[in-house]
Write a structure and sequence with these properties.
Layout lengths: L1 H19 L3 E14 L6 E3 L7 E2 L4 E5 L2 H26 L3 H33 L5 H30 L3 H27 L1 E3 L4 E5 L13 E18 L11 E6 L6 E8 L13 H4 L3 E7 L12 E5 L3 H11 L1
Antiparallel strand pairs: 1-7, 1-11, 2-4, 3-6, 4-5, 6-7, 7-10, 8-9, 8-11, 9-10
Helix pairs in contact: 2-5, 3-4
């Protein structure tokens, strides 16, 4: 009987203590967790920073094998140079030597045509005297027509060299160059991704992979806890949610510190963390919790993450007093 009385007394004492601490939101100190992931499956060649070290933005955290990617970058650079040379060639047009060679071809075609015409005329006179065959005449006629066609072809080739490159060909050459430049930029970005650097100042929390291991695509290779001071991530009870606003100054108690820290609310969830409110009655809705984050001052930079913390929430009475004082 005495044991039952003692248990009941302890239970009532706990309830009383709990009622005294209604306006407290419980949680832990946290930092923004920045996971640096691998974009390709390569072998880790260097881990210059050990876990737990302070890092700054731009500091190299992990290096992956880049031999293959360097070859791809060199190939893309060669293709850009080739495309640029073709574009320059199209803009510059034909060389003087090429024009002179085309003019010589025209002159040679003219001479061949004159000779073929003379042979055909001579054969016509001979056939009238029955001194040659009709087959010879037909052959000379074909040679004359062939010489004429060669002359026309040589003239068109010369005209093409003199007039220069077509506008459409210039546009094609420019498009090919732009495409190769874009490919080079992409390959260079892939190369830079193999050297993983810190994106924000913070603490290198974890290196999941060991030196020499081949990482998988999309897996985190370095985790940084960003920011100078941590923030308190707490759960606000539903009855106090309406009294907490972005920018409010709240007292944060951290285990191990005698005095509270003053923080500011930077974010409050719009939806409860547990059962939806419309599935509960009025009494049960009081058990809903809203996740919130309270920024701590810079003098709390040395506090580690994961430490329990509790935030004193403003009550309805204190809100009313504040509103009256502002009036």
């Amino acid at each position: 009987m005495s044991n039952k009385i003692l248990v009941s007394f302890v239970f009532l004492l706990l309830i009383a203590c709990n009622n005294d601490r209604k306006n407290v939101a419980l949680g832990t100190l946290e930092r923004d967790r920045i996971a640096h992931t691998a974009t390709v499956s390569e072998v880790i060649t260097d881990l210059p920073v050990s876990a737990g070290s302070q890092v700054t933005k731009g500091m190299i955290l992990v290096k992956l094998d880049d031999d293959l990617q360097k070859a791809l970058v060199a190939k893309a650079q060669a293709q850009v140079q080739q495309a640029q040379a073709n574009l320059n060639k199209a803009h510059n047009g034909a060389r003087a030597e090429e024009v002179a060679a085309a003019q010589a071809n025209v002159a040679g075609a003219k001479a061949a045509l004159i000779q073929s015409k003379a042979n055909y005329t001579r054969t016509q006179s001979l056939i009238k005297s029955n001194l040659t065959s009709q087959a010879t005449l037909d052959n000379d006629l074909a040679l004359r027509d062939e010489s004429l066609a060669r002359l026309n072809s040589a003239k068109e080739q010369l005209r093409q060299l003199v007039n220069g490159t077509r506008i459409e060909d210039l546009a094609i050459a420019e498009a090919v160059l732009a495409s190769n430049i874009a490919m080079l930029t992409s390959e260079q970005k892939n190369l830079s991704n193999l050297t993983i650097t810190a994106k924000r100042d913070g603490i290198l929390d974890n290196l999941p992979w060991n030196l020499g291991e081949r990482v998988t695509v999309g897996s985190p290779v370095a985790v940084v806890l960003a920011g100078k001071a941590p923030f308190a991530r707490v759960y606000i009870p539903e009855p106090y949610r309406v009294h907490v606003h972005i920018g409010d100054e709240l007292s944060v108690y951290v285990d191990g510190l005698a005095q509270p820290l003053l923080g500011h609310v930077r974010w409050v969830a719009t939806e409860p963390a547990f059962t939806p409110y419309y599935a509960l009655n009025q009494a049960e809705r009081a058990n809903l919790m809203y996740l919130a984050e309270i920024i701590l001052p810079d003098n709390a930079a040395d506090l580690p993450s994961g430490i329990p913390a509790q935030v004193v929430l403003p009550s309805k009475v204190s809100r009313q007093k504040t509103s009256l004082s502002e009036r």
